[in-house]
Amino acid sequence: MTSGGAVYREINVGRVCGLLLLMCFLALVPLEQGIDQALQAQSRSVETLYIPSGNILRRLSLGHEGLLADIYWTRVVQYFGRKRLDRATQFKLLGPLLRITTDLDPQLVIAYRFGAVFLAEKAPGGAGQPQEALQLLRRGIVANPDYWRLWQDLGFIYYWDLKDYASAARVFQTGAKRPGAGVWMKALAATVAARGGEIQTSRLLWSEIYRQAEGDSIRKSALDHLLALQAQEEMEQLDRLLLQYWQRKGYPAHSFRELVAAGFLAALPRDPSGAPYRVLTDGRARLAPSSKVDLRLLH
Amino acid sequence: MFAVETFDLTKDYDVGFFRQRMKRALERVNLRVATGEIFGLLGPNGAGKTTTLKILLRLVFPTAGTARILGRELDDIAMHARVGYLPENPYFYDHLTAEEFLNYAGELFGLRSSERRRRAGRLLERLGVAEARDIPLRKFSKGMLQRVGIAQALINDPQLVFLDEPMSGLDPLGRREVRDLILELKGEGKTVFFSTHILSDAEMLCDQVAILDRGRLQGCGKLREILALGVALTEMVLENPSPELLKELSAHARSLVRTGERVRLEVPQEADVAKLLALAIRHGAKIVSLNPVKMSLEDYFMAQTGATGDAAAGQEAASLSGTKLRQQ
Amino acid sequence: MRRIASIALHTFKESVRERVLYNLIVFALLLIGTAILFGSISVGIERIILVNLGLSSISVFGLLMAIFIGIGLVSKEIERQSISSILSKPVRRAEFILGKYLGLLLTLVINTAIMTVGLYAALFYQKRTLAAADLVVLQAVYFIILQFALVIGLALLFSCISTPVLSAVFTFCVYVIGNFLADIRWFGQETGSALIEKGTTVLSYLLPNFSNFNAITQVAHGQGVPGYVLLSNSLYALLYVGILISAAILIFEKREFR
């Protein structure tokens, strides 16, 4: 009786343990999902950095600050990407994250360049903090005096975000003097000084950014800006044509087909993203709703 | 020339959590071990045998006193080249095989690799562990480890071999082999100094013994002198002695043990034997046996250390048995 | 001399058989492999991330190895009493300490070499070529090895004094504090008390300065270390290791093995 009882008990314990294991796991999974969701919802509303100072972090990193900088850099990219996905209008942590990244590794040039584009850019494209971007870039220039492209980025912020053409030209001039600077910097300085707000100048600058882009996001942003500029230019041309048509015919056109029929255009005009242009009721060109061009970038 | 000499060797340890108390592990120990003899350091556990050995091998430093090994001072490291040592409860390196370990030991003696290989092989054979030469030491039994320990003590063909409890962990066959080995070593002209608490081994092997108890040397002398001391006592066994007889006998007999119908007496003084025998016969007791008992090392040992652990009583007992010994 | 080499080689073999070693190496190599993936997430700094992660892994894992094995170098032998069979042979105590030290140093150098080869393999895989500029990585590796030399010395010294666990704690603490010596000095100056300032200054020169040996970040950007820094750091390491080993020998000479 006792031996049989012992065996019986043995099987029981094993089964019970196995069952318990399984049940706990099954309970854990939905629980963890719930916790994740709750925390995520919380983290969306509370945007804080637990260690706000990059210099303290640098001290604590015991010689691994480079790696920590790289980790923070990926956080920057992820943060920005996620915010864009959520169609956020605020990028509160972008500046601080970039600051920490560059505190940890002042020579991580790509962080400065990223900041130049996305920190300065107005919402929803960026954080809309051009002054912070200027500060960031200035620190970058101090830490990397030989990296002349940062001067270009600095000048670019003055030009595009602050519309301060005189300062932009000045910065481009200084940058042109740095060893190894691209030959076009001088030309850029002159162009900016002479023809500050013109579309051609802007296209020149954005083309340079596109060409030098050190990251997919920067490159895409530059492309979007170029397309917008191109569309802007094309729309100005189309507006002039529409005006000519109106003057000629005495009534405004309602679609570009009329212009094609009247010989003003060879074919139906399409914007750089391939969508056809439309005509507004007030007789001006506009983008189709399906167009991928974002004119808000051109504020 | 003496192989080992100690002069008033004393060792104190600081014990207690704050090292505030002092424990005297050895007190003024004086030994003389002649070259070529087998010397046994005997004593109960905790007597200080291992401490003595460790001082001689410079693993522990004496508080007072000095010693010489092969005529050299203790801090002469070069002297170690001619000495072999088997530690108590040997532990070596788990990850090494027996052969690798002996090779390492040989390296430390500065032997050439061919020489190391040859000696290691021979020693492993001699100690009966040749089959396990490629097995890592962690898989060895205590007895096998003991044998490997003896092998590494002999790898440098030493003049003087220290063995701390060489028989421990061995079965009777193993002990016999080690005993034979020790005798062989003596035959090769080596001096063997070993410690043990197994008296029968010492009795069979030693030329000289010293008895250590609680740090003090209780006795030291040539074994044949100790054992050739004549009759230590006489044992008398009677059957059903009368109570009056017993009362008379107990005055002269040392121990009286009753088992059923039989009573066993020990009569220390030879002179008393005839008298007590006559007494017993007069009372009509039946005499089962009458045996003279020669002193054994155990008796000597018990006399020196005292069965109750009282050194004073031990002294008294020793003087009662009339042994002439070198006392400390 | 031969005996030192013998003990060193023996220590090396013993360390190599520690299974933990293999786990750490494999883990480190895996990390380096992951860095290749990691880098491709954020284009433009692949090489920087790879070098940072690779060297930081080598440094951290090597540190763990140095501490983990170093603390048992002497204390294990004492605890298990295998030391009595060594010191009863014609081996000077100083030779024993030196042999143990060199054995562990050898172990770490070889492990670091293996991991460095892994890093270079990863670099090669990334760019399909190795430029001369990639050689500066070796400078950082050299500094990392110098750090190991110091840590092993510390672990060895503590191993002569206390138990393995405490040795690990002390060694790790000294390593961490050794990275903050400049801050300690600054702190002492800021407090305004001359006594504290004196104390912190003395402390900062007494403890080993590990922060001088951090070259990972600059090497990741392809910048080399100036020659005089290489030289002075080597000298510093040599001197400080000399101090540590002398102290260990001093303590060990007086040590008894009951």
Please outline what is shown here.
The complex is a heterotrimer of chains A (299), B (328) and C (258). Chain A has 12 helices and 2 strands.
Q: Quaternary status of these chains?
A: heterotrimer
User: How many DSSP helices of chain A?
Assistant: 12
Query: Topology as H/E string of chain A?
Result: HHHHHHHHHHHHEE
* Lateral strand order in the biggest sheet of chain A: 1-2
The first-level CATH class of the largest domain in chain A is given as Mainly Alpha
Report the principal-axis shape of chain A: flat
Task: Work out the largest interface and the residue count of each chain.
Answer: B-C, 32 and 25 residues
Q: Indicate the radius of gyration of chain B in whole angstroms.
A: 24 Å
CATH hierarchy, class of the largest domain in chain B: Alpha Beta
Helix content, binned percent of chain B: 25-40%
CATH architectural designation of the largest domain in chain B:
3-Layer(aba) Sandwich
Gyration radius of chain A (Cα, Å) is 29 Å
Topology of chain B as a string of helices (H) and strands (E):
EEEHEEEHHHEHEHEEHEHEEHEHH
* Share of β-strand residues of chain B: 25-35%
Morphology call of chain B: elongated
Give a structural overview.
The complex is a heterotrimer of chains A (299), B (328) and C (258). Chain A has 299 residues and is an all-alpha fold. In chain A, 66% of the residues lie in helices and 1% in strands. The model of chain A has no long low-confidence stretch (mean pLDDT 83). Chain B is of the alpha/beta class and 328 residues long. Chain B folds into 2 domains: 2-226, Rossmann fold, CATH 3.40.50.300; 231-294, Alpha-Beta Plaits, CATH 3.30.70.980. With 258 residues, chain C is an all-alpha fold. Chain C is 81% helix and 0% strand. Chain C has helices at residues 2-16, 19-41, 46-70, 72-80, 83-87, 93-127, 136-161, 164-178, 181-191, 194-206, 216-220, 227-254. The interface between B and C is medium-sized, with 32 and 25 residues.
Please specify the SSE layout and strand pairing.
The complex is a heterotrimer of chains A (299), B (328) and C (258).
Chain A: H1 2-45, H2 54-60, H3 65-85, H4 94-104, H5 109-118, H6 130-143, H7 149-161, H8 165-177, H9 184-194, H10 199-212, H11 216-249, H12 256-261, E1 278-279, E2 285-286
Antiparallel strand pairs in A: 1-2
Helix pairs in contact in A: 2-4, 3-4, 4-5, 4-6, 5-6, 5-7, 6-7, 7-8, 8-9, 10-11
Chain B: E1 2-15, E2 21-34, E3 38-42, H1 49-56, E4 64-69, E5 72-73, E6 83-86, H2 98-108, H3 113-126, H4 142-154, E7 160-164, H5 172-187, E8 191-196, H6 199-205, E9 208-213, E10 216-222, H7 223-227, E11 231-239, H8 243-252, E12 255-259, E13 262-267, H9 270-282, E14 286-294, H10 297-305, H11 311-320
Parallel strand pairs in B: 3-8, 3-9, 6-7, 7-8
Antiparallel strand pairs in B: 1-2, 1-4, 4-5, 9-10, 11-13, 11-14, 12-13
Helix pairs in contact in B: 2-3, 8-9, 10-11
Chain C: H1 2-16, H2 19-41, H3 46-70, H4 72-80, H5 83-87, H6 93-127, H7 136-161, H8 164-178, H9 181-191, H10 194-206, H11 216-220, H12 227-254
Helix pairs in contact in C: 1-6, 2-3, 2-6, 3-6, 3-7, 4-7, 6-7, 6-12, 7-8, 7-12, 9-10
